[in-house]
Amino acid sequence: MTVAPTQLPLVEGPFGLTGHWRVSVTTGSLVTLIAAVHYFYMREYWVMYYQTPTVYRYIDWSLTVPLQMIEFFLILRSVGPASSGIFWRLLVGTVCMLLFGYMGETHAINSLVGFVLGCCGWFFILYEIFSGEAGKLKTGADTPKSVQTAFNTMRSIVTIGWCIYPLGYFFGFLTGAVSATMLNFIYNVADFVNKIAFVLAIWSAAVSEMDN
């Protein structure tokens, strides 16, 4: 007598998700965890020295922003033949944006030069997710609606939500119209909204796909 093989159940990951959404949501959760840890350090630094914790802030961004860019690659790679070029182009844009922004804020280079070059890195990211390979894959006929929804929300955050950072740089470091206290408050609110909204967009799309 032969016993028919039974299909093994699909093991659920964190939050009850499976497959590529498990990786994406875990990565997004890591972003918020890293940011939370660094904000404890930044708070202590501000309380002790009453100075802008620029180094801590950029350490945080140098870890969390690349992870956010990886999210674009992860969700596209899960549904189609996304090339590694997407990952590297987004990474290059991120490095340029953060490196020149940091150098400008710490006056290692002229603040205006740092602002312009940092914005060039941001614009390069926007080009990739709107008109580059990433943007074209997102609009492909085989891309599920859940992925398109997550991608659109994430892209809106990178476009609209991230406007706060260059505006803060411009008014804080180039014109001096904003005090250090207000600038830190603006950056804190921007980080809180953008990073949490980023992972919530992925979570919402994952739940939507599971329900369908």
Helix content: over 70%
What amount of the residues lies in strands? under 5%
User: Which CATH class applies here?
Assistant: Mainly Alpha
> Which geometry do the CA atoms define?
globular
Biggest sheet features: none
Secondary structure tally: strands: 0
* Classification by helices and strands: mainly alpha
N-to-C terminal Cα separation, in Å? 39 Å
As for the CATH topology, it is Rhopdopsin 7-helix transmembrane proteins
**CATH superfamily (homologous) name:** Rhodopsin 7-helix transmembrane proteins
What is the C-alpha radius of gyration, as a whole number of Å? 20 Å
Tally of discrete structural domains: 1
Based on the structure given, which CATH architecture is correct?
Up-down Bundle
Q: How many alpha or pi helices?
A: 8
Note the run of SSEs as H and E: HHHHHHHH
Runs in which pLDDT lies below 50 for 5 or more consecutive residues are 1-14
What's the rounded overall pLDDT mean? 83
Description:
With 212 residues, the protein is mainly α. The chain has one domain: Up-down Bundle (Rhopdopsin 7-helix transmembrane proteins). It is built from eight helices and no strands. It has helices at residues 19-49, 54-77, 84-105, 111-130, 133-138, 145-159, 164-174, 180-211. The longest helix has 32 residues, at 180-211.
Topology:
Layout: H1 19-49, H2 54-77, H3 84-105, H4 111-130, H5 133-138, H6 145-159, H7 164-174, H8 180-211
Helix pairs in contact: 1-2, 1-8, 2-3, 3-4, 4-7, 6-8, 7-8
